[in-house]
Amino acid sequence: MPHSGEPPGQGRIVALLCLAEVLSMTGFATWPSLLPQLQETWRLSGKEAGLVGGVFFCGYMLAVPWLSSLTDRIDARRVYFFSCLLTAAGCLGFALIAEGALTAGIFQMLTGAGLAGTYMPGLKALTDRIVGPRQARYIAFYTSTFGIGASFSYALSGGIADAFGWRNAFVLAALGPLLASALVLYLLRPLAPPAGVAHRAGFLHMLGVLKDRVVLGYVAGYAVHCWELLGLRAWIVALLAFGFAAGSVGAAAVPLAPASAAALVNLIGIPASILGNELAGRIGRRRLILGAMLLSGVLAWLAGLAILWPWHTLLAVLLLYNVAVMADSAALTAGLIAAADPLRRGAAMAVYSMFGFGAGFLGPLLFGTVLDAGGGHLSANAWLFACGSLGLGSLLAPLVARFTRHAGDHRG
Asked: Would you list the DSSP string of 61-112?
């Protein structure tokens, strides 16, 4: 039964869009899952490998201003459908053509651009159709499903590559977005934009949402969050591969493949996001977000220290680290939705995603650069400082919070 004051059928809409999100992300972690193998096959430096991982988010950053803000003017489901086709094209191009860092980067960028038209536009499709007191909770369900999609992609990519080769892993990754596009196009009812919606477009007009200091605070917080989360996801399989091999127990005793362990780490973060949003409603978003960021900033360095510890200890630290990183995810997004002008919500979400995933481009790149500077991927000290680089923004979060302190806690 629907919640009091909530129109019927909203649960079906949330379930549909969450399922579509998981399917649209089958290619999300294919590159990170296969990074150790392809870095060796193509003889890539850490900087080159980090660039290929980061350029995925560069494609997202370049496309999201146009694709997400477009949902203020047309039905988000149409943007979603087109973007799923773009994602599938990027995965297939990688499977058939990629032979090194340059071609791999081109198709990673195309796949990332496709994600720009599914993740936030999917959330816009949800918030356009969902009203009532449970909206923030449904937003948390949707944003947390991103972690399910990432985990599924890690597990699927690693398993298919082991059995059928890495190119077939990318081919299979293209099928998920195609199925997601059909689900959204045929099962989600059409919806016209609201009357009075702002039709002015353009990059500078879109950035005007940052004049609201509360929105600016959420955008800055999301950039810090994505720097850490997406940097970790880009390198976690390679980190686990080194840690499992170098740990005191030895690789032969580890019961999990690195890609499977990465999927487990990501999966554990999902309830942290949902529970973090619930806790934010009790203690305040600002307090929850700051606490989670400070904890994750410290745990980033601990993860680097744990690289030579027994495999189960390293895995436990990474599980705890990912929980801390994910704890503020839904709270940030729900806060942005609540703070944004409803008639410019698509533009606000575009800016939010652009800065967040722009930081997601720089995080993996800096990680790889620090790894090279510290002695390469066979040096434990290099992994320590590379992991530490992920937590730098989170440790500086209180400075951003002071800038937006005058805003009410219900918005900040």
From this structure: HHHHHHHHHGGGTS-HHHHHHHHHHHHHHHHHHHHHH--SHHHHHHHHHHHH
Q: Burial of 302 by CB count in 10 Å (0-12 exposed, 13-18 middle, 19+ buried)?
A: middle
Structural tokens at position 58: 């560069």
Output the CA angle 224-229-235, nearest 5 degrees. Answer: 130
The mean-pLDDT minimum among 68-82, 182-196, 361-375 falls in 182-196
Return the closest-CA partner of residue 154 out of 92, 89, 100, 233.
Answer: 233
Segments forming the whole domain that contains residue 298: 10-188+202-403
**C-beta neighbour count of 312 within 10 angstroms:** 14
In a domain, 411, yes or no: no
- 9: alpha, beta or left, given left = phi > 0 and alpha = psi -120 to 50? left
In a domain, 3, yes or no: no
Kindly report the CATH number assigned to the domain that includes residue 160: 1.20.1250.20
Amino acid, res. 187? L
At 251-295, the pLDDT tens digits run: 457 888 898 999 999 888 888 988 998 898 899 888 899 999 999
Domain count for the chain, please give it.
Answer: 1
CA distance 39 to 44: 5
Spell out the residues 6+ positions from residue 248 whose beta carbon is closer than 8 angstroms to its own.
Answer: 308, 309, 310
- Cβ-Cβ contacts under 8 Å for 167 (sequence gap 6 or more): 95, 96
Q: Is residue 196 part of a domain?
A: no
107 in a structural domain = yes
Instruction: Provide the whole-model pTM.
Output: 0.79
What amino acid occupies position 249? V
Contact at 8 Å (CB) between 137 and 85? no
